[in-house]
């Protein structure tokens, strides 16, 4: 009964998560500013911070004081997440490869593995790899397994919130009825939470990356498919059923190629990785990759530049109406295709500049991802943090002060 929705215990757990999330988003923040960011009273924040410090979840920063947001306030000792307070696992499950990452509570990378596999048609093998790799990473870095609080999984499809299964046509066509969370939780013995990779990429860029401090943004993930994640008024927006952001299925070419969704001329058929590389089939051969396209751009190849600028124009066309309706402050472009860089961003900017009414055309920043190909897996880490019940954190911490033992390197190169 104590944990029932609306109970004091449930309310305290939610408030704890609000405090933890505020510290995570700001990196270093005072108690006063936590109260301002969360809307909680200073008394509530003070009590929660005291408990979180005692449990080792938070620590007072040794980097000096920060100015208080309150007028006339004295500099306050900043709080940060304690890297030694615990860990979380993140997974990005694409149709050609899997990335598994172990991070501490502050987002520092403790270990990482990358594996190429036909995920689309081999779900059992993929899940076995994820589970085995996750347990191996924990053992390899010497992390206390009792301090790993959960796993987040980013997948290339909308996710049904109740069943954790995939919906709508997805790259992961053989996974439609697979409950990823349940299957992995059985294998690793931890809570597992699943989300759409574009949504989680947006969450990661807002928390750690290019969108830090920007509360209205659109994150575009350009890979084999095209997805978008929305942060509106400082909150992730996923729509009524979790399918918001399917940018790749906006029609941009009348009578164009048939898309996997069944419609013609979708953006995905024009600017997805396969569509871009297919443009070079006659001149460069059928095995052209995005890396080859990046190399051609570096060599100032006019054909490559034309293809990429045109792709930017198509994305801009699909974005223009959305930006006019939502008025984001930033558009962040990530995913595999984003590696083509400036010509793509210039193409997007050019269309937005000419299609949006003033002052909207001047108020939107278009930029590349700061987290690169790790954006979605970092978003999975943030998802795991947000979904883990706060009251589960405290029992795992040793309250006896001790000198922490850290692995020799904060980051293990991907294999």
Automatic annotation (TrEMBL):
PROSITE patterns: ROK. Residues 396-409 have a biased composition (Basic and acidic residues). It comes from the Bacteria. Residues 394-415 are annotated as: Disordered. SUPFAM superfamilies: Actin-like ATPase domain (SSF53067), Winged helix' DNA-binding domain (SSF46785). Coiled coil: none annotated. InterPro entries: ATPase_NBD (IPR043129), ROK (IPR000600), ROK_cs (IPR049874), WH-like_DNA-bd_sf (IPR036388), WH_DNA-bd_sf (IPR036390). Belongs to the ROK (NagC/XylR) family. This is ROK family transcriptional regulator. The lineage of its organism: Bacteria, Bacillati, Actinomycetota, Actinomycetes, Streptosporangiales.
């Amino acid at each position: 009964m104590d944990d029932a929705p609306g109970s004091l215990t449930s309310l305290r757990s939610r408030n704890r998560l609000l405090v933890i999330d505020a510290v995570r988003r700001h990196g270093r923040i005072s108690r006063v500013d936590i109260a301002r960011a969360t809307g909680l009273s200073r008394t509530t924040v003070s009590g929660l911070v005291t408990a979180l410090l005692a449990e080792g979840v938070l620590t007072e920063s040794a980097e000096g004081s920060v100015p208080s947001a309150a007028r006339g306030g004295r500099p306050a000792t900043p709080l940060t997440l304690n890297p030694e307070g615990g860990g979380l696992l993140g997974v990005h499950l694409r149709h050609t490869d899997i990335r598994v990452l172990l991070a501490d509570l502050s987002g520092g990378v403790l270990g990482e593995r990358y594996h190429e596999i036909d995920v689309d048609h081999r779900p059992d093998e993929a899940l076995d790899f994820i589970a085995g790799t996750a347990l191996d990473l924990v053992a390899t870095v010497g992390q206390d397994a009792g301090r790993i609080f959960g796993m987040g999984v980013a997948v290339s499809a909308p996710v049904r919130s109740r069943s954790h299964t995939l919906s709508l046509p997805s790259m992961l066509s053989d996974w439609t009825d697979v409950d990823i969370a349940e299957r992995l939780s059985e294998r690793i013995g931890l809570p597992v939470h699943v989300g759409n990779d574009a949504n989680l990429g947006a969450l990661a860029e807002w928390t750690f990356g290019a969108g830090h401090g920007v509360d209205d943004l659109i994150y575009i993930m350009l890979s084999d498919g095209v997805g978008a994640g929305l942060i509106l008024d400082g909150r992730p927006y996923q729509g009524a059923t979790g399918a918001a952001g399917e940018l790749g299925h906006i029609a941009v070419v009348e009578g164009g190629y048939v898309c996997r969704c069944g419609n013609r001329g979708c953006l995905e058929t024009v600017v997805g990785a396969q569509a871009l590389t297919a443009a070079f089939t006659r001149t460069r051969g059928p095995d052209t990759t995005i890396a080859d396209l990046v190399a051609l751009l570096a060599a100032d190849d006019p054909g490559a530049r034309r293809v990429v600028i045109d792709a930017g124009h198509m994305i801009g066309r699909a974005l223009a109406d959305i930006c006019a309706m939502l008025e984001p402050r930033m558009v962040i472009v990530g995913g595999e295709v984003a590696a083509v860089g400036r010509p793509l961003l210039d193409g997007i900017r050019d269309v937005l500049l000419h299609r949006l009414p003033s002052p909207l055309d001047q108020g939107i920043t278009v930029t590349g991802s700061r987290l690169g190909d790790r954006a979605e897996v970092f978003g999975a880490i943030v998802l795991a943090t947000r979904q883990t019940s706060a009251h589960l954190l405290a029992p795992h911490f040793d309250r006896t002060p001790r000198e922490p033992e850290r692995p020799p390197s904060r980051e293990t190169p991907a294999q």
